[in-house]
Design brief:
Shape: globular
Strand content: 15-25%
Order of helices and strands: HHHHHEEEEHEHEEEEEEEHHHHHH
Number of strands: 12
Distance between the termini: 36 Å
Mean pLDDT: 88
Helix content: 25-40%
Largest sheet: 10 strands, mixed
Structural class: alpha+beta
């Protein structure tokens, strides 16, 4: 397992233009695996027993211009291609995209905006200030388990200070996810399906995905759950040559949710056994290729009735098998599991970067259009925003590496973890168990006589002189 970790860290070396920056990347990467608390950058110092003087070096690492999120993640995509771990359908990658929100009360933190999220918990406010993240992952199968291996994440709201710097950062949040998927699929040189939830069932998503990429239309096909009020149209009748006026563009209007109770034989549902969220059950489905006004073209609608209720799926692939579409959508839940692991197991959202040059913002949520945050040094504020995205994306690399190791060395992970679980849910170990196993092995090397280059690099950092006098608090 450690050899696989070393191979990955060597593979990603070209993403850094300076050797010192790369060395600190290795330190940060191992620190994220070993740390036992989620209190930002300082947790890495405690986990690796580094000198307190290293705190400033770690901050400089995340603010460094010697590397970028795009460069590191592009090499990560190449690593996934060499490992050939993607679960493909119809010779296409399966990408999964979604948004996640994290509360942030920092008064000088860039890109913080007022967010809304419904909750059944009374202690959690519906409106709060925080960061709105967009993320995509690639579906990977490991024995009897599916993972959403993270590919890329960025902040997609509150980007007013970036005006004029990158047009794609100002696109609607739904479109930004599609652009991320197109760029990833292009880099991995393979067509893909992008699976999304009902929030993305808008015309701009399908139109963006339909744009030609390297001369290929629909390089990324969309599969999304439709809203309950979705309406489509049949094919228009042929124009009577004896009637004046233009030909009709749309045929009969159809309210799709009403078809579940329709007695018409033309809307008769078929029945089949299918795998729904890991359970075999009887499914009733109906497939219709209809015109949808937001895209002014044909889409495939799949009406599905399971024990969990009724849903309608929409896809731009008119040849996609309905059962395959149903099972693909069921795999969308893996990105929710990925978010949970990122936040609660790795603590990826526990960052505290702030910009001295930003004006103070009120902690009280208010309408985003009424809230303006000014900076006296736009360039350095942008650098702070980049540091936030770097912090999170390095943790995506850690999570993805844990998932690959769990897939490749399941027996060894369980043996090295020495971790008791009350319930073993899968033959493939979880990210938590894999992290425990790697942490045990790394600790044995760091506090023993490990001769590998990772251990020697960290030990050199531990031997750096500590400042005289009392240890100053790092805020």
């Amino acid at each position: 397992m450690l050899e696989e970790l070393q191979r990955f860290l060597v593979f990603i070396r070209p993403a850094f233009s300076r050797r010192t920056t790369y060395c600190w990347f290795v330190v940060v990467f191992v620190g994220f695996i070993l740390r036992t608390d989620n209190f930002g950058v300082s947790s890495i110092i405690r986990a690796l027993d580094l000198s307190p003087a290293s705190y400033t070096c770690l901050l400089h690492f995340f603010h460094s211009t010697a590397w970028s999120v795009e460069g590191v993640m592009a090499i990560w995509w190449q690593w996934l291609v060499t490992k050939d771990v993607a679960h493909c359908i119809n010779d296409r990658l399966v990408l999964i995209g979604d948004h996640t929100k994290t509360p942030k009360d920092g008064r000088k933190m860039p890109a913080v905006s007022t967010l809304h999220q419904d909750s059944e918990t009374g202690s959690k406010p519906s409106y709060f200030r925080g960061h709105h993240w967009g993320c995509i992952g690639i579906l990977m199968r490991a024995c009897d388990k599916y993972f959403a291996v993270p590919l890329w994440a960025n902040i997609q709201e509150g980007m007013t200070l970036l005006a004029g710097s990158d047009e794609k950062r100002h696109l609607p949040k739904t479109v930004q996810i599609v652009e991320m998927a197109r760029r990833t699929a292009m880099s991995m040189k393979k067509e893909a399906y992008l699976v999304l939830d009902a929030y993305f069932s808008v015309g701009s998503v399908f139109l963006t995905a339909a744009d030609k990429l390297n001369g290929i239309s629909n390089f990324v096909h969309i599969l999304v759950r439709a809203k309950k009020n979705v309406v489509a149209f049949g094919k228009p009748p042929k124009k009577d040559p004896h009637k004046r006026g233009p030909a009709k563009k749309y045929g009969k209007k159809i309210k799709l949710m009403d078809l579940f109770d329709s007695p018409a034989q033309c809307y008769a549902f078929q029945t089949i056994e299918a795998d729904i969220y890991g359970q075999k059950e009887t499914v009733h489905y109906l497939v219709l290729d209809l015109l949808w006004k937001p895209v002014k073209g044909m889409l495939r609608f799949i009406l599905v009735e399971t024990s969990r209720g009724r849903i309608i799926l929409m896809t731009s692939d008119l040849k996609l098998d309905p059962i395959t579409a149903i099972q693909l959508y069921c795999r969308r839940v893996t990105i929710e599991t990925m978010f949970d692991t990122l936040k609660n197991t790795l603590g990826a959202m526990a960052y505290h970067f702030w910009s001295h040059y930003l004006s103070r913002a009120s902690r009280k949520p208010k309408k985003n259009k009424d809230w303006e945050q000014n900076s006296t040094d736009i360039a350095k504020t942008k650098n702070t925003l980049a540091a936030i995205e770097k912090f999170v994306n390095v943790q995506l690399l850690v999570l993805g590496t844990l998932q690959l190791i769990a897939k490749q060395f399941p027996a060894e992970v369980k043996a090295k973890a020495n971790c008791w679980l009350r319930t073993v849910s899968s033959n493939t170990p979880s990210e938590f168990v894999t992290r425990t196993a790697l942490a045990n092995m790394l600790k044995n090397n760091l506090y023993g006589f490990g001769k590998d280059w990772i251990t020697q690099l960290i030990k050199r950092k531990q031997k750096e002189p500590k400042p005289n006098g009392s240890i100053r608090k790092a805020a």
